[in-house]
Amino acid sequence: MSLSVDLNHSFPGFTLDVTFEAPSGVTVLFGHSGSGKSTVIKAVAGLLKPNAGKVVVNDRVLLDTHGRISVPVPRRRLGYVFQDGRLFPHLTVRANLTYAHRSDTKGLDRVVDLLGLGNLLERRPGALSGGEAQRVAIGRALLSDPVMLLMDEPLAALDAPRKAEILPFLDRLCSEGGVPILYVTHAVAEVARLASHLVLLENGQVLRSGPAAKLMADPVLVPHMGVRDAGALLTARVVAHHPDGLTELEAPGGRLFLPGVHRAAGDPLRVRILAQDVILSRTRPEGLSALNILEGTISALHRGGGPGVVVQLAVGGEHLLARITRRSAEAMGLAPGQTCFAVLKSVAVAQVDIAEAAPLR
């Protein structure tokens, strides 16, 4: 499965000019408000006709303004999930799910199980929480038998508890759903948790496009991702759960101990390590309360206009980021090629930054 997008469209005071290609998996369009994310996804869906452009999904041309091709929305076979669920208020959850059902009963049962909707089927939308309603909206889109799922900031209208409620279901959808996804967000945590491919938009243009793990670990892109939200992704695997409440993970460069991760031994995970939570040492530290010490090699340093420096550390074939002061970097004499040790407190990694998903590419 592949997606190819080439769009040009103008609004008063804003011009969208984007070109990117994405493989199968979860492609996230990321950028701040007004960067053009929703315009792109609406053009892909057919809800907006751009001034010029071409959209190809799995070698099928959905839009080609030069060739005067524009496949009608119902025939594009794209499932669309909006910020608000847009469920039919007079229908039960079951009836909402089956409204556009194009697969067999087995397909319905699988979606109900995947999204945990079994105990909601006889309720009406008015009796659902925001997170529950979004799960139903996602289920309805899946049951339309789409070749691709389009999700336009599906968590934007939810408060923190509802987001925490729905994120595990999105994890399952991304790892088990079997349908490629184009996902719009301005939240770095959602990128880290869900994306396999990342398209970074800024002022209507593609700043960078590529594997999510590679882009998130690029120190040059930290200002565009948000300094406080910047962090790299590591793959890990659950090794054991210990009596003191810590879970032991096998990660690149060594073992990690995190507060109780509710996954089975052997499960693969992706873990976001915030750059601001990493301390660096030129020698292996001793006598610290921190349990996690990973050895790596400095691969890059990026000095911005302020007092901070972002250090990229190669660890077991993947990368970590550390955000430290320029004064510390100079005092330590940090330079590419040096061996360095990353120190991370166990409690620094939040549960929201641990995802049940396929290993990163």
TrEMBL record:
Keyword presence, Cell inner membrane: yes
Domain ABC transporter: 2-228
Gene Ontology cellular component list: membrane
Mop domain residues: 287-353
Entries under Pfam families matching the protein: ABC_tran, TOBE
InterPro entries: AAA+_ATPase, ABC_transporter-like_ATP-bd, ABC_transporter-like_CS, Mo/tungstate-bd_C_term_dom, ModC_ABC_ATP-bd, Molybdenum_import_ModC, Mop_domain, P-loop_NTPase
Keyword annotations: ATP-binding, Cell inner membrane, Cell membrane, Membrane, Molybdenum, Nucleotide-binding, Translocase, Transport
MF term (GO), any: ATP hydrolysis activity
TM helices/strands, residue ranges: none
UniProt entry tagged with the keyword Thylakoid: no
Gene3D superfamilies: 2.40.50.100, P-loop containing nucleotide triphosphate hydrolases
Protein name, UniProt field: Molybdate transport system ATP-binding protein
